[in-house]
Amino acid sequence: MRQRLKQRIKRRLAGLACRRLGLYPDPPMLVRDMGHPIGLIKRLGLECRAVIHVGANLGQEFDSYCRAGLESVVYIEPIPEIFAKLRARISVDKRHRAINALCTDRTGDEVDFHVASNAGQSSSIFEFGTHAQKHPEVGFVRTLRLRTTTLDQIIFGTPSLDPRPFDCLVLDVQGAEAKVLAGARQTLGQCRFVLAEVSDGGLYKGDATAEEIVKMLKTEGFNLKSLDINRFGWGNAFFVRA
Prior knowledge:
By secondary structure, this protein is an alpha/beta fold. The protein is built from nine helices and ten strands. The chain is globular and about 40 Å long.
């Protein structure tokens, strides 16, 4: 009974969120695993060929990407020691490739990148906002000086990388979603699916809100299909090209 009530509340909140954004008269599809694109895509009766995962961390999705039989997966991770572990993990499958890079909306800028204590998962180019209060167990342990690039530069400017199969983009970049998307216009042009971690805003100083990401992707031809925000004010949004 309690679980059914939670699901009804969740569906109601999702519906209100979508109506606020002016996208749907009815609630979007809800699925159990909002953090993984493959299940969401299959739920729609669709398939994807290849995934670009920005902010891949240790490649926690590697096994499920392998099971999906994708043609190719590119994992992009900026923290050097995390990247080394990621590369070692995926090295057993030649279809999977790791790239050590920090994606934003510009190429060649030097920026501070703050490394978080939770194995790097909350690391960001932004300082903590309300994240510090909502997750006091997590802190920044050091700051790296990194040079930026854009997703378009990686996907279309890497000679050994064939950009044609990639039709799904996953973003887990801790508030920098708008910056990454601004540097991914060409990449978005060939994508059918986008899964982005989003928030109500303010989790990081200078981050983009879920509403801003929805509007941004709307102009690129994507419709919001699922939205799930947890009690901390962050979650995932799934988009499909109209």
